[in-house]
Amino acid sequence: MLAAIVRSSLIRLIPVGMVMLALQRTVFIEIQVSGVVVQVVLALVAAAGAAGGSERGAVAGFTLGIMYDLAEGTPVGSTAIAFTLAGVVAGLLALIAADPQWWLHAIFVAIGSAVGEAMLPVVRIFIGEENPWPSEMPKIVAIVAIAAMLMSPVLVPLGRWCLRIRGPEWTAPTDLPPV
Question: Is residue 174 part of a domain?
Answer without folding.
Answer: no
